[in-house]
Structure formats: C-alpha cells, structure tokens
Amino acid sequence: MSRIQPLSVPKQRWHLLLALLIIRPILVASSTKSPPIDQIWGVTPKVESTPLNVGFGLHHRTNNAAATTVFPRRLVVMGGPASGKGTQCQAIAEKHGLVHLSTGDMLRQAVSAESVSDEIAPHISTIKNCMEDGKLIPDDIVVRLVLDRLRSPDCQKQGWILDGFPRTSNQAVALQNAGIHPDVFLFLSVPDDVAIKRVVGRRQDSLTGKVYHLDWNPPPNDEIAQRLVTRSDDTIESMKQRLKQFRENANAVKGCYNNTVEIDGLGTPEEVLWDIDTSLKRVAQESIEYE
C-alpha cells in the first residue's frame, strides 16, 4: 500500500499564509464597521433638556448623559399668610421652569386693572371689599380666574405651581371636577405668631410686584425703596382674621389630597427651598420606581 506523503510547503510560504490569516479578519471588520450615527439618522441625537410629560406628570431634565433628575410639574402649595409660600413658589417655578400662578396676584391685578373682562367686572367691588376686610373671596369668582389660567398654553406645556389655591374644600373639589389633579400637595407650616411678625415689615414694589421685608430682605437701593407700598391686607388686624379663616379651612383642604408633603417653614428661605426641592424630588423618584 502506498503512503500519502505530507504536503511540502516552503518556509517562506508558511509565513505568507500566517500573515494573511491574521490580517484578513481585521480588514473585514474595518470594512463592515457601522457608519457614524449622524449618517443613519441625519443628525446626531441630542440629550433632551426640555420638560417631558411622562407618566406621573414629571419634568425630566437632563444636563448630560450621566445625570437625570425628575420633578413634579403640577403642584398645589398651601400655607398660611406670611408662611413664605409666595417666595418659595417663585423660586421653585424659576428653578424648574414651571408657571407660577398666584391667586393673590390675580386678584390684586383684577382690582387695579383699568379694564377687565365682562365676566369679572361685576365682581371687582366684592373682591376689593373682601381683601380690605381680610375675608375670603367667593369661590365662584376665584375658581373662574384659576381654571381659565390653568387651561392657557404655557401652563399646559410647562406645568404649573398654584400658590394660594385652593383655600377651601369647595375650591379643591372644583379643581377635581374640572379634571385638575396635582402631582403633589405641598403644605408649608408656620406658627401664627411668627407669621404676624413677618407681615409687619413686608412691602411690595409697586412697579415689579416683588416682595421685600424691611428687616430681613430690604430693597437694594433708594429708587426701589421709594416705590415700596404696604399691601392693603398686610395689617395686624387683617392678619388675625386671615389666620383664623386659614386654620378653619386648612384641614378640610388637606383632607382632599392623599399626596401631601408637609414642610417646616421656619428656616431661612434658602433652607426651606432646599427641604422642598429634596422632598419633592424624592417623591417624584419614588413614584417612577413604583410605576
């Protein structure tokens, strides 16, 4: 029987074959590499930095690919007179891109405006008298103002923070019946005696509407100081009446919501804002994890 002889290959050819076996896969991989993402999609995708309406109604804000924060986009904030809720609402709105809606400002604007809508005009004297006497504005008037504002395009797109509404259980029910459901009900807690001390020195810029305090947050220059006025409802007598009515209604309003976050309002504005921001981000994150 003849024996098959092994194939004889010169040493130089072995080197050539070995080189081809190593180099060819690299060349194939390079030729089949995926094209850049902008060639597939037309443009390079960017990290979303604008509010997105997702599930719980949250803002997803991403400044880079590694960090994402969430924050509620529909907030109701309740607190007694001089509890600091106006200051905190403004700070939260600016920080998170929400529309700040203050019923107090809406009502004061309606009283001072040269012309108002036909629906509101008949109620101007009622609004003015209630404000001067420290009494609550009738629900039907306030509800009409608030619901019209909540349906505006900026509130629908950016989200909103309601400052000073609802103040009664009837107003809270009116919101629910209109399909308005906040993500979080935030309650600022401040003792009555502290609130009265705060209001004594409070002043408002008649031009910009910004609020100052003569002791804790004075105006930065004489020009602004000369424009400062005392709001008609910022007197001790009016405050006592307002605080009494607030306490009578607060528990009833809180009972209309099961997503309440209560914050101690006795700290500095910066400290209270930090507490609010931290608490609401935690609530929002827990809601997403729950879903």
List the helices and strands and how they pair.
Elements (H helix, E strand, L loop, with lengths): L10 H21 L5 H5 L16 E7 L2 E6 L1 E6 L5 H12 L2 E4 H10 L11 H10 L5 H12 L2 H6 L1 E4 L5 H9 L6 E6 L2 H9 L1 E4 L5 E3 L8 H6 E2 L6 H19 L5 E5 L4 H22 L1
Parallel strand pairs: 3-5, 3-6, 4-5, 6-10
Antiparallel strand pairs: 1-2, 7-8, 7-9
Helix pairs in contact: 3-12, 4-5, 6-8, 8-11, 9-11
Précis, in short:
By secondary structure, the protein is α/β, with parallel strands linked by helices.
Key descriptive features of the protein:
12 helices, 16% strand, alpha/beta, 291 residues, three-stranded antiparallel β-sheet, 10 strands, disordered N terminus, five-stranded parallel β-sheet
